Every structure is written in C-alpha cells, then in structure tokens.
Amino acid sequence: MNHFTDHPHRRFNPLTGEWVLVSPHRAKRPWQGQEEEPVVPTERRHDPGCHLCPGNARQNGTRNPAYASTFVFDNDFAALTPDAPNETEETGLLIAQGESGICRVVCFSPRHDTTLARMSVADIERVVDTWVEQYAELGSRPDIGQVQIFENRGIMMGCSQPHPHGQIWASRHQTNEMIKETKFQRTYFEKHGRRLLLDYVEQELRAETRVLYENANWVVLVPYWAIWPFETMLLPKWPIRSMEEMTAAERFTLAEALSFVTIRYDNLFKTSFPYSMGFHQQPTDGGDHPEWQMHAHFYPPLLRSATVRKFMVGFEMLATPQRDITPEQAAERLRALSDTHYLDE
Ligand code: H2U
Ligand code: ZN
C-alpha cells in the first residue's frame, strides 16, 4: 500500500463504516511546527476553591469526603436521570424517545495537581478498578443498556474542572457510536466467525508501522483510519468483551498502557496534552455479544504544538474528515518520544 504515501486517498474505518480523507502531500514536513515552552503545571496539591478536592464543598454545597484514592459521585448536573419515562412519541417524521440513565463523576486522585500522565501505575490501577466496579454495578441494572466511561481532558476540550477526573454516562439506549461499532463488529463476526478487532490487532502487530506499544495483554496504536492527527486506540490482544472480564494481571497491564500513552502525549508538545478518551465495551442490554471486543479511543485535538489545534470544520463537517500527516507519520513521531515524562527529565 506504499503508493498512497504521497497521494490523496481515503481510508475505510471497518468499525464504523466511515471514510477519512488522507492528504499526505499537504504536510511533507509536519514536524517543523514550533515547540512551545513547557507549560508549568499547578503546584497546588489541594485547591480550596476546587469542587472535586477531598473535603471541599461542591457547587451545590454537598461536601466531598476526605477520600484517599478514587472518589465517585452522582453528577450534580446530570444530563441523564433514572426517572425519565421510557416512552416513544412519533408524529410523521418527528420521533422522540424518553431517555433515562445515570451520570457520575470519577475523581482519579485526591491530588489536585496530577493527571493520568503524572500518576504512578499503581494509582492508575485504582482508577481502572473503579471503572470496573462502576461498569459492573451500572451495567447490571435492567434500565441501563450501555455504560460510557470517558475522560475529557484540558480546557481545549471544554473540561470545566482542573481536578483529575473522568465521567460515566450510563444510558438505557445505545448511543450513535455504539450502534455503529456493534453493527460492524457483528456483521464481521457473522461472516468470519472471528472478532473484527482481534483480527485487526493481529494485522497491525504484523505490519508494525502503526504500533506504539505492546505489553503482555494490550496494544496501543494509531489506527489506520485515524481522523485526529495523533489519535490512538488501546486494544486487548485476547478476547475481552468488557472490563468485567479482565484478570488482575490485565488490569495492571491496562494501567501500564494508559501510563505509557498519556506520558507520550504530554511529551509530544511538552504540555499537559488535551484529549477526549473513553472505553467502548459490550453493551449491557442483556443481549449476547460474542462480536464485541473492548477498547479505548484517544481523540486529541492538537496538531502542531501545544497551542495549534485541528478544527473539524468546512469539508469535514459537511462531507468527510480529512487529515494531512499520515497515521504512519504520527506513529513514528510518537514512537520517537521518551518514556519518561518531560517534567521528570
Ligand atoms: P468536565 O469533565 O467537563 O470537566 O465536567 C465535570 C463534571 O463535574 C460536570 O459534568 C460535574 C459537572 O456537572 N460537577 C458536579 O457534579 N458538581 C460540582 O460541584 C462541579 C462539577
Ligand atoms: Zn481539586
């Protein structure tokens, strides 16, 4: 497939059925962008004004416990509530459906001044354990069909609280992304009797060009069909439908993989790298999902430096997402970085 490295082409995403336009000729020298001065992170371990720090009051006056590891609470401004009626209204083309669910906030650490990239693997493992507990608890409810675990990092991503945290939105119905991924994984499984993402990981491990990291259980790679300049995926090497199926060893190695990818990201532009990340896993709709393979997506907006971001506008909003730097170039760039966080060097 080498004849495409200099020419515009489109690549197919077999998980969603969508295409991305790749225009490598537009970015022959994509790493000549300026390097910004390192961003100096906050030095406050505890911020008296933070709504998520241990012992502090939240916006609505509720006081957080003096938590020492992770802390989960129901979102005070939840987009989904458990009591919404499960009814459908249809008038011609106007269709609406009641949607219920539960929104939670997961504080990753009592420390205000840290991030996944700065946390120890042992502390990230506590976050993984918390995600597993939440997925199991929320997913076992009959009124929850899907548990979406995610982290929105940095002001650039619209994150409102600097304290290290993620969110969980658990809903009755399947979301757009899950509907696509379930459909394409199922079709593949029915046709080949194998999981799409297991075959994909095996193919990428053979090709090597897009792989950034591999441990006993997990692979981090820039997907062949990546849209964002430094988009990555974290995938298991063995069949795992959801977090609940992870062994203790797999939880630990997942924490290692998360540490790896977040450190590389921070090192790329010597900044606290913004992104949206989240896990896709088997729906909790009571159905049988032999097609499902859990994974995480990292969608970072940065393009050239700590301040120059990619915008999904114009052609991308109206037609198809487009990228200049190829996924292979992005992988090469990320692979060349140090494993040590730039602030520790
Ligand atoms: P971000 O991940 O976008 O920063 O959102 C933080 C969430 O924390 C947001 O959904 C919730 C907001 O509703 N939150 C509370 O529930 N209570 C608070 O006191 C502050 C923020
Ligand atoms: Zn805080």
What structural keywords apply?
24% helix; 20% strand; HIT family, subunit A; 14 strands; binds zinc ion; three-stranded mixed sheet; 6 helices; 345 residues; alpha+beta; binds 5,6-dihydrouridine-5'-monophosphate
Description:
With 345 residues, the chain is an alpha+beta fold. It has a single domain, classed as HIT-like (HIT family, subunit A, 2-Layer Sandwich). Helix content is 24%, strand content 20%. The chain has six helices and 14 strands. The chain has helices spanning 121-139, 176-192, 196-207, 248-268, 315-318, 327-335; strands spanning 9-13, 18-22, 71-74, 88-91, 94-97, 101-107, 146-153, 165-171, 211-214, 218-221, 232-236, 275-280, 295-299, 322-323. The strands form three sheets. A nine-stranded antiparallel β-sheet has the order 3-6-8-7-12-13-11-10-9, with helices on both faces. Strands 1-2-14 form a three-stranded mixed β-sheet, with no helix packed on it. A two-stranded antiparallel ribbon has the order 4-5. The longest helix is centred in the C-terminal third of the chain and has 21 residues, at 248-268. It is globular and about 60 Å long. The site of zinc ion has 6 residues, from loops.
